[in-house]
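DOMAIN: structural biology
WANTED: fold as tokens
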Amino acid sequence: MKLRFIPKEERFFELFQDQAKNVVKGADLLAELVGDHARTDDLRRQIEEVEHEGDITTHEIADRLNRTFVTPFDHEDIHALAGSMDDILDYMEATADRMFLYEAGEPTPEMKSLAEVLAEATNALQKAVEGMTDIVKNARRIIDHCIEIHRLENIGDDESRRALAKLFKGSDALHALKWKEIYDHVEDAIDKCEEVAVILEGVVVKHT
């Protein structure tokens, strides 16, 4: 019988859970911004603050990784997971920033749909990350949440294609270019959620 021992360095799990909470908070604020255009500047600033909190958490993970010999799972997986979650926050901030700086106007129904997909994906991500405290016991739960993220990423792709098709049919070129960049940042954030899911799936496979 092959025994598998996963060392417990609880602080890593706490930091990843903190980062997952930041990601969910950022997505919720972005969805709120998209639904309340009048508060774009205020909500943009709140998202920026969440992104800065995320940077602090990412740096703490990196620092702890450099000082810890025995980690809960592979160093490269910890590094990749921290980086991908940080990227999600970066893309959220970029989305809100461009909406404000470009004076893009009232968000489209398609933008609202994309923001909702992102919020749902981050919630699934948070649940998957929470399961990492006991990878063996929670393997099925983690995988199920990752599958949900993959499903939402496919929906996000479809929503993005529809949004771009509609955008370039009826808008002037400058308006279309502004919103294309905004849509791209949201889609990138959703793609990064899927990247997190792939990393987590790999970790589960290695430890079960």
